[in-house]
Amino acid sequence: MTSITCIDDLRQLARRRVPRAFFDYADRGSYSEQTLRANREDLQRLKLRQRVLVDVSERDLSTSIIGEPASLPFSLAPIGLCGMQHGDGEILSARAAQEAGIPFTLSTMSICSIEDVAAAVDKPFWFQLYVMRDRGFVRALVERAIAAKCSALVLTLDLQVLGQRHADVKNGMTVPPEIRIKNVIDIMTKPGWAISVLRGRRKNFGNLAGHVKGMDSVNSLAHWIAGQFDPALNWKDVEWIRSIWPSKLILKGILDVEDARLAAKSGASALVVSNHGGRQLDGAPSTISALPKIVDAVGSEIEVMFDGGIRTGQDVLRALALGARSCMIGRAYIYGLGAAGQAGVAKAIDILRQELDVTMALTGTRRVAEIDGRIVVDDAR
Ligand code: GLV
Fold it and tell me: Ligand 1, closest atom to CA 130?
């Protein structure tokens, strides 16, 4: 992988190797993709201050995330269907994260189950939870995460109804892929993918199949979310989850200061400033534009994490400069997974690590704790 020097190289490779329906599922956003684009554009608008003649010979990228030591100030975000980017994708990503010394988050909508991942790694991972109408099943999922010794529960708040992703509808995205002539031709041109997925442990949603009625026959994500996810989700449910989950709780999908204030009072350890990677409310502000107000309002009460649009180490630095304590990396690692499995995820993490390291040096920064608003050019904020 010597010719791979940046996340975009991994994206190009993933585009060639992963069937279109699954590549687009990860890559695209909802409706007109305004928010998807704004996440990237607003990050790039933020200019970094070049500082010189600061001794940066000793640099340290390590930090702690919700009290857990981490070698880098980012974690891997929960992403559905990793096992459709590459066979056993969740296990491979969890292993790459573990080797790099950063947290991995397993999505409810994963292909490998909680138990599959727990059996494949030594260190605790995080589990992301969607609240479904069937609270008995939600409780069972939480109990499975406890049994698997997950160290944090990431409760996603911004997907109780699905923002339409036009690409998924047009591609007829289903799990496993439907035997349609278009799909078959596409898969025939991606034999490496087909072999890896055929060899993978599962071909369906590992946390749900066999547990949720009708799950084995309903394979369209949109259909399933519409039928199962609970649009009545509210702060009382967060209290309930808090009462059945004994460990750290992370609330993901906060974009508004008023919601951030409620999150800070909820007993959660952290919140994630997120618009679901521009996949939900199209027209919502970029996460980087929402971040400073949220940090000002609640940064001293609750740990603030950030996601949305991070493709470089420079982006990680920008988010930290505006007050995030750590970032969640989504598409950047999924491209690595689709491009080359575990080695690709490791490559994505390493690219971000190297970019962050060099960028810290060139901004005169030695440690993660030193990163603050002084690193960005004032009038760019
Ligand atoms: C699920 O979390 C999705 O964004 O598709």
Answer: 2
